[in-house]
Amino acid sequence: MAINLTKGQKVDLTKGNAGLSKIVVGLGWDVNTYDSGAAFDLDAAAFMVGGSGKCPTEKEFIFYGNLEHPSGSVKHMGDNLTGEGDGDDEQIVVDLSLIPANVERIAFTVTIYDAETRRQNFGQVSNSYIHIQDMVSGADLIRYDLGEDFSIETAIVVGELYRYNGEWKFNAIGSGFQGGLAALCGHYGIEVA
User: How many angstroms separate the CA atoms of 166 and 78, rounded?
Assistant: First the structure.
């Protein structure tokens, strides 16, 4: 049974789960009935950051335009353009045993594609969540429902995996940004063209 987290809560992932190495990070959402005249396209991404809090290179930014880290440790399973249907809308697979030593944290984010042009924000999105599953057993380990705390934000840092004393933990962050993907890229040291 999955542990349900609240904002700011931290939980051990590998401690007590001996042998856990491959996980699926699933992100899901629904769009409210409000119609902005354009489809909603939410995008999940992972920023693999070092001790500086920044991505060492652009290769550590995993998203629809760069689906896999060269180490094979983080793989984005593809872009869902509509978010329709039940279950996860986008998934990122993580092999904890392959994460390079210089990566201390992996931040999972969700942004609204072309939000400014389409006049969209997270106030129009509901039932957003992240959950982590053991890829081998299929068991749900963690679930964090973001709630309806957002209004004008166009990007959210949902949560992050981080190393602590040789183990992996998860921190439910749930903090919003304005400025979409470009703002997140700037925050994590990725230059945007």
Answer: 30
